Amino acid sequence: LCIEYDKERKECLRFLEHDDTRYDKISDEHHGSLEWLWKHPQYQKWLTSTTSSLLYIEGKPGSGKSTLAKYLEKNLAHRVPNASSSTIVHYFYTFRGTVLESTHENMLRSILHSILQKDESTFFHFQLEFRNLQRRILQRPHSLEWPYESLKKVLSSFASHPSTKPLYIILDAIDESIEDDRRSIIELICQLCSDKNPCNIKVFLASRPVAELKHRIRDHHQILIMQEQNQHDISRFAVSFLNTDLHLSGKILREATDYITENAEGVFVWVSLVKTELLTHVERGRPEAEIFQCLKALPRDLKDMYTAMFHRLENGQHQVIQDRIRIFRFVLFALRPLTVLELHNALATPDDCNPSYEGIQQDICAVKRRIEYCGGSFLEIKRDETVQFMHQTAREFLIRAIPNASNLQFEINHMAHKAITATCIQYLMHCFSSPSIRGGFSKVQSWSPKDFRAYAEYLNEWPLVEYSLRYIKYHHDIC
């Protein structure tokens, strides 16, 4: 009986598969920062409450909310005595990941999968809906997806969970979720956090201001405004790079630190961009006094900083402009982030099908330098080698700014999906018409298992094949 129970539970987990790439791409906290959280009164009330409760971290774009959510998730188990024996799950919404990662359905799958995987005793919450799903599959074999409303029912059932151990749910960037049904999801979260429930569910939710959420905050919920708490962290970060990277000291170090802390207004992203701009001046040999003047000349608003960066992107040689156009098209409109090699293959794909085309030389260091140069400070290469915007605010700025670009060469919105479709088609034509494949394989009707394996290995040598085959129809249908 136990074997059958566990077999059913594992099958249930399989139906809860989901995309979850955002967590590892979030910046870690600067050394020594965010320690204020553990002693903050609102956090303490949320933590020590004997009933379910919500801690809402509201903050400006770029104020460090995601870093705080990741910091809590990493440290909660060993900083809080009872948390090590409790269940801690998380989900980070994002527009910069796969197409699913901004959806509420993917969030539900991720949260429920983590709960069931970490605490087998919770399976009774899943069984009824899972067995209903299995019956539907028997009737309609092509319907293999767990229905969205059914997933919501499973999570809502935890409001009556009898366990005395807290269930910690950490949610980040609900403002980056799709708007469809966002209100219903927020209502579900607030219902789980009702102080009238017999369970003890503690939800930590970080987001930009969201009207649907603020409307549902109750007296027993806690609110913490991020930019009112992070001034000391910004000062510490500024001192670190001004001293270590820019080698400022004495009076200029103190004045520059005070200037950055005051003008950041709680926005870490602005401080990070300031660091990049000032490093450029230091690398050109500017003296200390000039560095401080350069600092005061920088835009003091994040939007104005992005505008200055964008104007630099609009200038350059024709080939550089064309590379930038193609890079930003893919980074903005691809259905998932491309890796360095995938993006390089997209850039290197000729406009016509050249029979002598034999793949692409892949000097990875040169490729990265090219992407970093063309992307300016807007793009960064993550640890998993994907190319993404340095922050969601950068993506939002470009979506608004590009249609109004003063340099008409830099119109990457215009027919973007048509251009991506054409690149995918040409790439597949190069792949499937390569001389090595024409001469190396017999007719497919006579292939042995060994031939199929060899063909699969051949396709693996073409980094953009998987994306092209999977998503070409999407881009074609839009254009």
- Count the E strands: 7
Low-pLDDT windows of residues: none
Terminus-to-terminus distance: 55 Å
State Rg: 26 Å
Give the structural class: alpha/beta
> In which order are the strands of the major sheet placed?
2-3-4-1-5
Mean pLDDT: 88
Overview of this protein structure:
With 479 residues, the chain is of the alpha/beta class. 53% of the residues lie in helices and 7% in strands. It has a 5-stranded parallel β-sheet with strand order 2-3-4-1-5, with helices on both faces. Helix 7 links the parallel strand 3 and strand 4. The radius of gyration is 26 Å and the shape is flat.
Helix and strand arrangement:
Blueprint: H1 2-14, H2 41-48, E1 53-58, H3 65-79, E2 87-92, H4 104-118, H5 124-139, H6 148-156, E3 167-172, H7 182-192, E4 201-207, H8 211-214, E5 222-225, H9 231-244, H10 250-264, H11 268-283, H12 288-297, H13 302-313, H14 318-333, H15 340-348, H16 364-375, E6 379-381, E7 387-389, H17 392-401, H18 416-433, H19 435-440, H20 449-460, H21 465-478
